[in-house]
Amino acid sequence: MTTPPLPPLKPIPIKDRISVVYVEKGNLDVLDGAFVVIDKTGIRTHIPIGGIACLMLEPGTRVSHAAVTQAARVGCLLVWIGEAGVRLYASGQPGGARADRLLYQAKLALDDEARLKVIRKMYEMRFKEKPPERRSIEQLRGIEGARVRKIYELLARQFGVSWKCRNYDYHEWESGDVPNRCLSSATACLYGICEAAILAAGYAPAIGFIHTGKPQSFVYDIADIFKFDTVVPVAFRIAAKNPKQPEREVRLACRDAFKQTRLLHRIIPSIEEVLAAGDLEIPTAHAEAVLPAIPNKESMGDAGHRG
Fold this sequence. Notes:
It is built from nine helices and eight strands. By secondary structure, it is an alpha/beta fold. β3 (34-38) and β4 (44-46) form a beta hairpin. The longest helix is centred in the middle third of the chain and has 23 residues, at 137-159. It is flat.
């Protein structure tokens, strides 16, 4: 009697996952059907890849074809990062943008009036108050910048941290002071899970509204909404302790903060709320469009997940 095949893997919704896991020095592979990291002594550590939103891969990691395939099937974003989690070199899509959502996002970004409405909504959600009326995008950016600098100063004072300004050098990481290193590590954590959520929802990380011109422009837009409620206070709290390994301490604290604030439950609904402020309808298929010959199967995952 032959053993029946295993059922196909299906993505778990982002809100039900662990936010982020870091892997440093090891080979990622799929052995006996399990996603594992193997250290230099040959010891395997199982990683529940289907229950993780974002897997951060630091220098010293290697990934097999089978591991990348399985991560894509279950909708886990793989992100290749630099030492201390600061640089984000590349990422692997855990599904990708849906055509209807991508067209909707692009339509909002290209319509000046709709784009301003979206930016105003982002401002309102970030600062918990409506922005001043009759302000251009450039004026809103100036107001935002002034408020952000003030928040940094207030948090530094609250936690007793010596603070000059937001300043760091990717090329000389160790030259930065502890508060800036903590902030950079914290925001890298936030960017990873925001990008995973954006892709899972079927949108494109590159099509931003406030930020433009970078592969993660929309990631920065969405992360800014949550930054001061989650990772920035964590960064200053850790910086006040002046630990020997501030980056590691920040990662662990951010993981706990994401869980306590139920961030993964909030990101995708917030994306939908922000875009809905543009008051444009989601485009429908053209009358002459050719429908897929083989329709996609219904998935238990989010809108942008494959499988």
